[in-house]
Amino acid sequence: SRLKELEQEAHFVAGEQFLTTSSNQLREILFGKLRLHLLCPRETFPRTGLQRPPSTSEAVLNALQDLHPLPKIILEYRQAHKIKSTFVDGLLACMKKGSISSTWNQTGTVTGRLSAKHPVSWCPCLCLN
């Protein structure tokens, strides 16, 4: 899958295995190992927590993506992971006998339209654009 490809690519570019969803491990690689914050001193990096380590937010990764390929890979991974966890995993939980079907209500709305539940039927592909 695309998530696995992005994960392998991130490990290759970073030169080590790490948990792609871990902000702490990513922070250690970006700012500890690669020291990308030193290559871009004009940027102010938001800090998080009591010890105030640099953030790995989308804004920071966007600022760093021209300096090294890893931030761009992580941004793409996060987007693909969000879509998978929001849409695909939820629909797979509703699958019965290899198909997904909603429960349709004929009197589900005030205006007389049909409505669906378990899962709600709408096109998640609109969110991909």
UniProtKB/TrEMBL annotation:
Enzyme superclass (EC): transferase
SUPFAM superfamilies: DNA/RNA polymerases (SSF56672)
Highest taxon listed in the record's lineage: Eukaryota
EC number(s) per entry: 2.7.7.7
Keyword flag DNA-binding: yes
Keywords noted in UniProt: DNA damage, DNA repair, DNA replication, DNA-binding, DNA-directed DNA polymerase, Nucleotidyltransferase, Transferase
GO terms of molecular function: DNA binding; DNA-directed DNA polymerase activity
Gene3D superfamilies: Taq DNA Polymerase, Chain T, domain 4 (1.20.1060.10)
Recorded family membership: Belongs to the DNA polymerase type-A family.
Full protein name: DNA-directed DNA polymerase
